Amino acid sequence: MRIAISDGIAAIAFYDYETAVTVRMEATGDDCTFAVQLEELVNAVKAAGSKGTAVFSVHEKSLRLEVDGISIAAPLGEPAAVEDAPSVPAIDGEPAFIVSGPEFADAINALEVSRGNDDTLPMLTGVRLESDGARVDAVTTDRYKVTNVRIPSASLPGECEALLPGKPLAALGKRAVKESSVSVTLGGGDTVAIESDTVTLVLRKLDCQFPKWRQLFTMVDNASASFEVDAQSLAKRLKSLTASTLSVHLGITEENVTLTGHSRDGDTVCTFVLDSGNLRVENSMVIAFNTGYLAQVLASVPRGAKVHCSFTKPNRPMLLEWNQTRTMLMPVRLPG
Predict the structure, then answer these.
(1) How many helices (H) and strands (E) does the chain have?
(2) Same fold, 97-215 and 219-329
(3) CA-to-CA distance for 188 and 316, rounded, in angstroms?
(4) What are its GO biological-process terms (predicted)?
(5) How many Cα atoms occupy the beta-carbon half-sphere of 269 within 13 Å?
(6) Superfamily for 219-329?
(7) For the segment 86-127, what is each residue's pLDDT rounded down to a tens digit?
(8) Is the separation of the CB atoms in 37 and 75 below 8 Å?
(9) Conformation bin of residue 135: beta by default, left when phi > 0, alpha when psi is -120 to 50
(10) Nearest to 311 by CA among 255, 248, 253
(11) Cα–Cα nearest to 108, from 159, 205, 165, 174
């Protein structure tokens, strides 16, 4: 990677011809440019630990990191390495949309629940972004879950449609909570720039077809039952059941909602009545879900938020909605 210090700013840039990352931070001293092996720098940071404030200093043959009395050096590359390092592509033009950093962080956190990790199905590992001039839609799916985050408060100077690699966005999402804004700009070809106060990502669009997600959400129209629950409270309880249960069955009646946990052998592990509100039932039903998947979705809901759950039939997905997010979770087959 190449590190350039100029006018009091250190720009740390890495580009592997698929993803370009530039991180900016304050610096002091003379302007200079040098190269360092990414693996060497990562190892030095890991060895120093994550606590405390790190101070980097440039020496004749090394980049030295000091934190809490620990000093670790990463060797500098040869001068030719600066010239040989690939240049990060520049993307000009107006942003397609701009959102606040915390909004971007919340959106990515919710989307991660439904993003796939099977590299043989790259369309499921990405994040679909769509802007139509009225709002931004971001979508992920792993075939078992589909999450759509709608961001109506985004600044929308243009339109955008792209399927982007999910891992770099997930990393930026963790950092964006402390950033003031995040912008998305389309390049002239197959690249997209995503920029916050301190980080710029240049990503190549994934060259594959994303599922027609809007059609998927029509599967949960005309709900025949619905209720609200405290997401974090139920997520915590379900997480404690993931080791002993494979699925949970929701018995939904006009009186209450009963959750029953079942083991891999089909044995009943536990039964309890959910603390639910705004219960509305036209047709009673029993519907089952994978315990781990349901716990993951509920755990992604911000603390203190209520999630609205709606159902159509026992063989149709459940729709979970909170704030500007909606997630569709596929049911599992009931025995018999």
Answers:
(1) 7, 24
(2) yes
(3) 41
(4) DNA strand elongation involved in DNA replication
(5) 19
(6) DNA Polymerase III, subunit A, domain 2 (3.10.150.10)
(7) 777 888 888 888 889 999 999 999 999 999 999 899 999 999
(8) yes
(9) beta
(10) 253
(11) 174
* pLDDT confidence of residue 268: 92
CA distances (Å), 234 to each of 116, 221, 239, 268, 304, in order?
24, 25, 9, 19, 11
CATH for the stretch 97-215 = 3.10.150.10
Instruction: Name the residue type at position 299.
Output: A
Which one, of 212, 236, 246, 228, lies nearest residue 295 by Cα? 236
Decide: 226 and 283 in contact? Cβ < 8 Å.
Answer: no
Contacts of 150 (CB under 8 A, 6+ apart): 135, 136, 137, 324, 325, 326
Distance CA 72, CA 33 (A): 20
Per DSSP (E only), the strands in 106-144 are 126-131, 136-141
Q: Taking the domains of the chain in order of start, what are their residue ranges?
A: 2-84, 97-215, 219-329
DSSP 3-state of 303:
coil
How far does the chain reach from its first CA to its final CA, in angstroms? 58
